[in-house]
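During the second half of the funding period, the structural biology subgroup turned its attention to how the target accommodates small molecules. The most pressing case was uridine-5'-diphosphate, which had performed well in the primary screen but for which no bound structure existed. We therefore specified the complex as follows and requested a full 3D prediction, including the ligand pose.
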Amino acid sequence: MELKYKRVLLKLSGEALMGESGYGIDVDTVNFIAREIKEVQELGVKVGIVVGGGNIFRGVSEASKSMDRVTADYMGMLATVINALALQDALENHGCATRVQTSIEMRQIAEPFIRRRAMRHLEKDRVVIFAAGTGNPYFTTDTAATLRSSEMNAEVVLKATKVDGIYDSDPKKNPCAVKYESINYLQVLNEGLKVMDSTAISMCMDNAMPIIVFNIYGKGNMKKIITGEKIGTIVEVDNA
Ligand code: UDP
């Protein structure tokens, strides 16, 4: 089978693991996502994953309003580790060899992030889950995803969402909203489109790293992207 992408970084937000429930981890949803990932990994694609933590804790949330920002951010980073372990468990239940690496050391439960080691895992067809964001407060896991994507020489960031791409306005509020097939980084920044935070978008722009925004709940979507079908919206250097 002809593959368009052979090395990808999947960004999974914490909310993606939450499914329809309002908080935490939904087992059926995690299992569904694990199957989607396995399908791609079985094609021989090298898969790195950055998981978010928003389903458990966010540094800038209402609950942390009175907290020290840095402490709250560390709590958010720890939340991503819980999600990483849940995802690892589901992937391994589906027969997919997986390693978790964390940007904040916690050696009893995961490897520390070591780039060369991560590359080696990928060579051996293991899925590598990068947890604890960048390890620094004031960042997001979207920025961690763009950072790791460049570090692992990925060809694309697959940004998993609940919608099927980027629209010029909110499709839930505006029935006439139009979906972009492709868009450039500056357009995303200038129009304030909610794709990723501006740090993450600028970093992708500086490194010419394309981002595909797609609906993770659409069965087979990830595989379709890998085999070259036009799914979702691609953010890339403007070739026009
Ligand atoms: N976070 C951080 N530094 C990072 C990544 C994440 O401080 O490099 C914290 C931040 O508080 C963030 C929380 O971890 O709100 C959870 O990550 P994020 O909001 O990106 O998760 P997602 O929205 O993808 O579920």
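Two results from this model are relevant to the next phase. The beta strands are 7-12, 46-51, 98-102, 111-112, 127-131, 156-161, 182-183, 211-215, 233-235. The pocket of uridine-5'-diphosphate is lined by residues 13-15, 52-54, 58-60, 72-73, 76-77, 79-80, 133-134, 136-137, 139-142, 144 (CB under 6 Å).
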